[in-house]
Amino acid sequence: MNRRMAFGGVGVIVMALAVQAFAQSSAPKVQISDAWVRLPAEGVRTTTAYFDVVNLTNTNDTLLSASSPWADRVVIQHYVTVGYDRKAKTVATLKVGAGKKVKLSASDYHLKLEGLTQPLRADQKIPMTLMFANAGRVEIEAAISKQTLGNMD
């Protein structure tokens, strides 16, 4: 009887450890908030997306790519200033430090959606997939906003 109880106790401990490991592995590794896309002018087939990303882990992560079924291509861009010129430069990735927050904004890093496949309306949300090196695939929806150049951040 004691032997049976001992093995039963071990089984309960093993099961509890397995549940805890699963819970930790399925916990979100990044948090995305305040996602929005600028409503483009009529006939324009590009727009920009902005959001905050927080790395919830103690390991650095990297945004590798982004995509949307509503755009032919999504690229990561970063504004650089050369002399008096300010230009958006396409970059391969975006690093998100361990425990850090990165704000994608109109004045720094942002996503550019090219070749929009349908007209956008301010009452819609555009689906996007973000691919991180460690956090993996993260699905988000970004609200389409009529924000203008005067109040971008």
Question: How would you characterize the overall build of this protein?
Answer:
With 153 residues, this protein is α+β, with helices and mostly antiparallel strands. It is 16% helix and 51% strand. It is built from one helix and ten strands, in the order H-E-E-E-E-E-E-E-E-E-E. The chain has one helix spanning 2-26; strands at 30-38, 46-55, 61-67, 71-82, 85-91, 94-96, 101-104, 109-116, 125-132, 136-145. Strands 1, 2, 3, 4, 5, 6, 7, 8, 9 and 10 form a ten-stranded mixed sheet that branches. It is globular, with a radius of gyration of 21 Å. Residues 149-153 have low confidence and may be disordered.
Element layout with pairings:
Blueprint: H1 2-26, E1 30-38, E2 46-55, E3 61-67, E4 71-82, E5 85-91, E6 94-96, E7 101-104, E8 109-116, E9 125-132, E10 136-145
Parallel strand pairs: 1-10
Antiparallel strand pairs: 1-2, 2-7, 2-8, 3-6, 3-9, 4-5, 4-8, 9-10
